[in-house]
Structure formats: structure tokens, C-alpha cells
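Example record

The entry below shows one chain as it appears in the dataset: sequence first, then C-alpha cells.
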Amino acid sequence: EGLGAAPGGGPCDYIDACAAPGNKTSHLAALVRQAMNGSEDSDAKKDKRKKRGKSNPKAKSTIYAFERSSARFEILQQRMELLVPKSSASEVAVCPVH
């Protein structure tokens, strides 16, 4: 299916094992969000995505962002708060892990 979608068309999880300072993580979140939303505009394609679960407001992909260094982990948390929305309507959740 491509980035942002599991084989059935739904969300999937990602691991960023060396996440700080957050540039790769925020870029990945943007790519996944774009893939989950799709760039197609036709009603037929939107209906097809909806049937596959891509329009489910509760369906989210999760990025687990790991960082070993305490100082770098703090930077990662700050950047994710600024760059990745925590809204329940967001298609992507980022979970910093220390």
C-alpha cells in the first residue's frame, strides 16, 4: 500500500530508534499524514479510501521515537510538541520514549 498504510489500507506503527533532535521524526510524521490523507481528489477515490479504513477518524499511525540521551530526549519532546499536532483528529501520533 505504501507509506502510512498497512496491507489492508489502515494505519501502522513506525520506530525511529535514534530520534533526537526530531527532524527525521517530524518529517516522517508529515509523510505518514500525507499518505493517510491521500492526494486524490475524486469522489470515487475518496470512497475507496473510506472503505479501506483510511478515512476512519480513530485510525492512527503511531511513531515511537526513541532517544537514549536525557538532554537530547528533552529536545525531542519540545520539537514534537511544536511540530506534530496532538489533536484527536490527527492521523499520526508521536510517542517519545526515553
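Notes for this example: The chain has three helices and three strands. The two ends are 31 Å apart (CA to CA).
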